[in-house]
Design a protein that fits this description.
This protein is mainly alpha-helical. The protein is built from 15 helices and nine strands. A three-stranded mixed beta sheet has the order 1-2-3, with helices on both faces. Helix 2 packs antiparallel against helix 3 and helix 2 packs across helix 5.
Length: about 500
Amino acid sequence: MSSAVDHEGVMARVAEDSGWSARFAFMTIMSAGIAVLGLLQSSPAVVIGAMLISPLMGPIMGLGFSLALFDFTEMRRSIVALAVASALAIGFTALVVLLSPLKATTAEILARTRPNLFDLLVAMFSALAGTFALIRGRGETIVGVAIATALMPPLATVGYGLAVGNFAIAGGAAALFGTNFVTITLSAMIMAQLYGFGHRLSEQQTWAQTGLLVGAFLVMAIPLGISLNQIAREAVIATQVRSVLNTSYGKDARVAQLDIDYKVNPIAIRAVVIAPRSNALRPQILAQAVEAKLGQPVSLQADQVLVDPGSAAIDQEQAAFTQAQEQQRLREEGSEIVRLLAITAGAKPSDVLLDRDARRAVTAAQPLPGASLLAYRLLETRVASQINGWSIAIVPPAGLDLPPIAFASGSDQLDDAGKTALSTAIWAARRWNWTALSVPGLREPVSERATLDQRRAAAIAAALRENKIVAVPTRPGRAGAAIELGAARADTSTQ
């Protein structure tokens, strides 16, 4: 398979693209900038544009081939280029986010925070295709786009997470980048070995060199092995639990729902089983059977939907199954909402209050550098737009000033900016559970001789009352200036 391969020519192309250069640095910065803008706008098309110009394929291929050839010089060049490029991409994207008015967590950002098996497979297939194209001398540029898919967007997401102080996002994206990096490097190394790129050095390699090569392979494979082992372990446990439930309740039973929380100790199992009434089991007996099968203690909650035999049994089972499916859907939906809100607001999942019956979710946001009340309101709006049928509330950090309310010049009518400021103040008061706001210069009733500032204050007070917020008069500010509201003790006697 390797006889028709121009080994020297391939290595010359690899060496040409794997090192650090001014062009490499410029293209890395441009790619990172486009990627983070695409993430902030939740635009897959813009993110793809970043992949088209990303230069990360060169050093990755250089590292893979250097491992196959045991070439320390090339390995050092590739690692330096990758390390500097990664730091440069993260730093530049963080700077873009800090300067950008858009800081809301988007669906494109969230998609890069939870590494899974499919991400790993994308990276592996991309690397195998990229290495093959490079060796055969055709299509490597196009395949490099797929490799950039696995590397540049996660790096940009790390920069975003660091810029907004959300380390859950930064950590998840870093884990995704690390997993993809290891997978691509090892896949490139294996493909290079298959095409004979390590064969030429076999006579000169010592046992120490071979040991170092194997050691490097194992060290790089550890994170990947841990991830795959965890996925496999969870799949085996789920299969074993389902097997115990089916065996315990008999052939006429059906496991309608099975949820397992592997993060707690002991693992928590929630199951819904539809079974004939005659096959009902005590939860203690079922838990003992599951523990005996798994060889470890568990926390089991099994809801038994029991149906009577006879002509109506099928209808009862179908109705029970439909009900169980709806319960499972609501539970999964609630879990996803908790995760989304926690990442978006920088909070812990346990801090998210979820009311499934009322379909309402509330959490307090962590402070974002330079973020105003309007930014938190837009953040809430963005999350709510992604979740249909739920009421979403993000409580902004305490201590932020309410936005000043401006009017059109010489008028007591709010301009567009004033309307936005007033609605934001009302939104913040509701989130903070304030029942009253102070209105400078408010004097009611408004007479025909009222000044422009008094008419403006009265207009704000009327809008507050429409939203069931008490308007409390306070000392007027500078004449003609924007009106700044504040917290106040509710006192209906002032109305």
